[in-house]
Amino acid sequence: MNFFKIFTAIFIVTSSVVFAHSGVKDKNVKERMMLMKKMADNTKIIGHMLKGKTSFDANEAKLALERLSSLSLKTPKVFEVNATDPKSEAKPTIWDEFNEFTKLSEDLAATSAVLAVSIDTIEVLRPALKQISSGCKACHSRYRE
Ligand code: HEC
Question: Which of 1-5, 12-16, 75-79 has the lowest mean pLDDT?
Answer without folding.
Answer: 12-16
